[in-house]
Design goal:
Layout lengths: L1 E4 L5 H7 L2 H16 L4 E3 L2 H4 L16 H13 L13 H14 L1 H18 L5 H17 L3 E5 L1 H12 L6 E5 L33 E6 L19 E5 L9 H5 L2 H12 L5
Parallel strand pairs: 1-2, 1-3, 3-4, 4-5, 5-6
Helix pairs in contact: 1-2, 4-5, 4-6, 5-6, 7-8
């Protein structure tokens, strides 16, 4: 059994399916087709959804203040000059979004705005009920299905990493794809691993036997791309090329041989092997 933990822009599955169960099934079918293996998904998107505008409005100045700060910190980590992230009012966030579009394209700008809106909802408040609920939904699925592997994409890698520290689950393999876990100021310093675990940030979660990370060389979310530099608990790290337009797309990551090869032995071997 493999469980997938999704990233950003996944509320649309609920909008299309009409039920949480239907959304989880639709997402699982899409991921399974890309991976070429059966899986189920932990679907937490509705728990971070703030309203009808979320995921559709792409004006950076409409982001909440925390998300605006996140965006300017992000472009700073990507190498933007200081003048891009400094200025009065909403000027820095508009400059940051424009710099992203000029440097990486309009798709990257839109992805960054959606990511900041959803990530801000999750990471800004360590004690947020929404944050706890997202972790609990992942844990509910994991404790209910007892999978051998978890595949977590984008923001989902943050939710899964925290969840696996809060209530450990025995896993043969954790695979993170396009992970922002190490992104300075945006995610890394804001990770909340639970009481007694904060000093273990960067380690492999307890109960996880092996951790594989895959990052596209052009993925602006996977910063730093060399995630083991901040997370020495990673056993294997692969830098790949998915193509400029699809550099953060979950299904493109799932189809990579590095991901398939890591997971295939678990399906071939009997449970407990």
């Amino acid at each position: 059994m493999i469980v997938g933990v999704h990233g950003i822009r996944c509320y649309r599955y609920l909008a299309e399916a009409g039920t949480v169960e239907g959304a989880a099934e639709a997402l699982a079918a899409e991921w399974a087709a890309a991976l070429g293996m059966p899986l189920s998904t932990a679907y937490y998107a509705p728990l971070l959804h703030l309203g009808a505008h979320q995921g559709t409005a792409d004006a950076p100045e409409l982001l909440p203040p925390g998300a605006q700060r996140m965006l300017t910190d992000w472009v700073s980590a990507l190498g933007a000059p200081a003048e891009v992230t400094m200025g009065p009012g909403t000027l820095p966030v508009r400059q940051a979004a424009s710099w992203l579009a000029e440097r990486f394209g309009e798709v990257a700008r839109k992805v960054a705005i959606v990511f900041c809106r959803e990530a801000d909802t999750y990471v800004t408040d360590r004690d947020s009920p929404r944050r706890a609920a997202a972790r609990d939904e992942v844990l509910r699925v994991l404790h209910g299905t007892r999978p051998r592997a978890v595949v977590a994409h984008s923001l989902g890698s943050v939710v899964a990493y925290e969840a696996l520290w809060h209530r450990p689950v025995a896993l043969d393999l954790l695979v993170t794809l396009g992970s922002p876990l190490g992104m300075p100021h945006v995610v890394f310093e804001r990770l909340a691993l639970g009481e007694g675990n904060e000093e273990r940030k960067g380690e492999r979660p307890p109960g996880v036997r092996r951790w594989v990370n895959v990052a596209d060389v052009g993925d602006i979310v996977a910063i730093p791309r060399d995630l083991p530099s901040r997370f020495p608990g990673i056993d294997d790290h692969h830098e790949v090329s998915l193509g400029l337009v699809a550099s953060h797309k979950a299904t493109r990551y799932l189809a990579r041989p590095e991901v398939v090869d890591a997971l295939a032995p678990l399906l071939a071997a009997p449970d407990g092997a």
